[in-house]
Amino acid sequence: MNRYQNQTPRAAFAIAAVVMSLVTIAAFVGPPSAIDAGDVWTMMARADRATLVTISPARVDVVASREAPVTVADASSVVAGR
Predict the structure, then answer these.
(1) What is the pLDDT of residues 31-40, one digit of tens each?
(2) Positive or negative, the Cα torsion across 73, 75, 80, 82?
(3) Distances (CA, A) of 28 to 14, 66, 74
(4) Where are the beta strands (DSSP E) in the chain?
(5) CA–CA separation, 28 vs 20, rounded Å?
(6) Which of the 8 DSSP states describes residue 73?
C-alpha cells in the first residue's frame, strides 16, 4: 500500500504566514502612528494654558434595583408516584 506524502513544504508555509502577518501589522500600525506623530507636538504646544471646563449636570444619580432571590426546588430527591 502506498503512503500519502504531502508535497507542500510546511516550514515554507509557516514562514510565509509569519511574514504576511508582520507585513499586515506593519501596514496597519506604522503609517497611522507616523501620521499622528505630528499632532503630538501640536498638542504639547497648546498645553501651556489652562482651559475652564464645566460639567453639566454636576451630579449623576445612579439607581439600582435588585429582585428578590429565587428559590429553586431540588426535584432529584422526589420519588415519582408518591
Answers:
(1) 776 665 555 5
(2) negative
(3) 21, 45, 55
(4) none
(5) 12
(6) -
